[in-house]
Amino acid sequence: MSIDIKNKATMRRRKLLTAAWLPFTGLATAAPPPKEEMIARVEAIPVSIPYKRTFVIARGQVAKGGAAGTYVFVRIETSGGRVGWGETIALPSWSYETVESICAVVRNNLAPIAIGRSPFDHAWFEKQFDSTLAPAVSNGFPFAKGAFLTAALDLAGQISNVPVHRLFGGKLRDTVELSFALSIDTPAEMARAAAESPGIKCFKVKVQGDAALDIERVRAVAAARPDLAIWIDANQSYRPVHLEAFLRGIRDVPGVKCLEQPVRSADLLGMKRAREKMSIPLAVDEGCFSPADVARVAKMEAADLLVLKIAKSGGLWNCCRCAAIADAHGLGLLGSGLTESGVGLTATIHLFSTLELLLPPELNGPRFLADLLVDGLEVRGNVVTVPDGPGLGIRVKEEQIRKLAIRA
């Protein structure tokens, strides 16, 4: 009897061991996993969105009240019928991508790679995209890539039934307070615009490389709103040798928190020289598109702060990597955008809700666009509620987008 019991115990152990190792031997006969939804269709839809206010920066007019700006929406549909959305602006005065190049890249280069793949294959997409469209020194076609990858993340969130912010560790806050840009104008007009928005605690004050006039602008805004946090943005309009007069003229202005990108984007030595002469923190924006750029800026000690933008980073994951590298190198984080409508704004809000930013992020869509083209995004003044629905958690006005579509 004892022998039978021993044999039975041995057989039982063998069965358990065999069951444990079968999956690794290729002999397992478990039921196949449920069929996964794959990307079946990719569209690039160029759209003209009306502006309700004029917006001017140092490099020229971004928007004119009553006119329209050019955007590209990326629509991805899965084999299961789900739809994900991404968006980018076409603003060649800020970066080189045009509406024509964005549409061509999405249709001819990204879509053939993506169709038949899972929306969760984010790392694979990035590797293949960079192999097809070489990033050169920095990012290659980041606006087009970022719009596509946002749509893929929207789908991944929908399929997993979680909001996009959960894919990045989850939100730190339920709402995100925004700052807005003060368009370049006369000192009196910029001061008036700041005074008319008492609920906004931080404005990005645009300047344009004329030291005497820019000093007047900053001083006028500070006098009109002594309580205001002032974030100055020169949009590459100064040369290092001319910057000192401007810095001397604003040295005693209360509320000035930082100066963003005063010199040309490629001039990291000029940024380093400017930083050495400044008494306020220096932020890099147009001069830093990729994680490698962040490391380069930090190594050269060419800035104190990094301005994060989804579009220039080539998507949310790359922007998140930029933030991690900046934080590891002791650079403070600021958040910004390029006057995106509701899809781009919502994607940015999801990511920025997971980060510790030093100032309210500057996201200008609600201030300058006549329609954000989404439902379900709660914007009250300059406070946005972080969506908790699956994916981006908004309803895109597809019919309206198609009505605004243009040829490209």
Task: Trace the largest sheet across and list its strands.
Answer: 7-8-9-10-11-12-13
Could you give the distance between the termini? Answer: 85 Å
Content-based structural category: alpha/beta
Portion in strands: 15-25%
Main pleated-sheet profile:
7 strands, parallel
Low-confidence stretches: 1-6, 13-32
According to CATH, the fold-level topology of the largest domain is: TIM Barrel
Task: Explain this structure.
By secondary structure, the chain is of the alpha/beta class. It folds into 2 domains: 39-161, Enolase-like, N-terminal domain (Enolase-like, domain 1, 2-Layer Sandwich), CATH 3.30.390; 168-395, Enolase-like C-terminal domain (TIM Barrel), CATH 3.20.20. The protein is 40% helix and 19% strand. It has 14 helices and 17 strands. A 7-stranded parallel beta sheet has the order 7-8-9-10-11-12-13. Strands 1-4-5 form a 3-stranded antiparallel beta sheet. The chain has a 3-stranded antiparallel beta sheet with strand order 6-16-15, with no helix packed on it. Helix 6 links the parallel strand 8 (202-206) and strand 9. Helix 2 packs across helix 4 and helix 5 packs parallel to helix 6 (211-224). The protein is globular, with a radius of gyration of 25 Å. The N and C termini lie far apart (85 Å). Residues 1-6 and 13-32 have low confidence and may be disordered.
